[in-house]
Amino acid sequence: MKERLNYSLTLYLTKKQSVMGPEIVQLMQLIQIKGSLTLAAGALGISYNKAWRLLHHAEQALAQPLVVSSAGGVHGGGSNLTTEGQNLMNKYLRLQELSQSAVEHYFQMIFEEN
What we know:
By secondary structure, the protein is mainly alpha-helical. About 55% of the residues lie in helices and about 10% in strands. The chain has helices spanning about 20-35, 35-45, 50-60, 85-110, and strands at about 15, 20, 65-70, 80. A hairpin with a 3-residue loop joins strand 1 (about 15) and strand 2. The protein is elongated. InterPro entries: Molybdate_resp_trans_reg, WH-like_DNA-bd_sf, WH_DNA-bd_sf.
């Protein structure tokens, strides 16, 4: 049986350097779900330090905060997306969805056997 061709598509938002890509978007989604950078990093299988660096790099490149954190205490600390972070993540995910649909359409048109 002949193996069929497939494709992959990875999007990065860039300025002079990569600002957002799949890894940071996954991290932001997990922060939103778990309410913690530490828990999000663990769920993604990366260190807290790497997660912090990814966010810091993106925030510096964009000149705006993506995540706000609160220190621990009696009720513990946590992290949440800023309004700007939420908006950017939503736009990235929408672009990814539309791009994937377009690529799937053209892939089928070009590579599917009739």
